[in-house]
């Protein structure tokens, strides 16, 4: 792992972090930068597709997918948090407590979305002929 790993040491009551090497910072930025852009573009495309296509707006699972995409916008904060960590550790250390709470909340919200999608698909598979009558219609 060498010196390119930006691990941390916990000694006593203080926290000190090893600064990442220039190569490590460049590689992480080269990976995280396009990932942020792809993440943003993909979620925007999902929301726009559901908003523009009427047949998608009429399906209840599309609303769950749109809500999940909106929640995923918040996950961009994880990637941005990591990018900021690479360049300004002091700013990140002040926000760390709040970020952990936000991240834990987002995990639970994502799990709830996935459970809702699973329940919807279960109903669609279990009752394929009457699914459109069971699922509420949105005009």
Order of helices and strands: EEHHHHH
Question: What is the radius of gyration?
Answer: 21 Å
Secondary structure category: mainly alpha
Spatial gap, N to C terminus: 57 Å
The helix content is over 70%
Largest sheet: 2 strands, antiparallel
Q: Count the strands? A: 2
Query: How many individual helices?
Result: 5
Question: How many domain units?
Answer: 1
Shape field: elongated
What is the typical, i.e. mean, pLDDT? Answer: 79
Regions with little confidence, pLDDT below 50 for 5+ residues: 1-11
- The fraction of residues in strands falls at 5-15%
Strand order of the largest sheet: 1-2
Account of the protein in words:
This protein is mainly alpha-helical. It contains 5 helices and 2 strands. It has a two-stranded antiparallel sheet with strand order 1-2. A hairpin with a 2-residue loop joins strand 1 and strand 2 (14-17). The protein is elongated.
Provide a brief overview of the structure.
The chain is mainly alpha-helical and 139 residues long. It has one domain.
Tags for this entry?
139 residues; mainly alpha; two-stranded antiparallel sheet; 5 helices; 76% helix; disordered N terminus
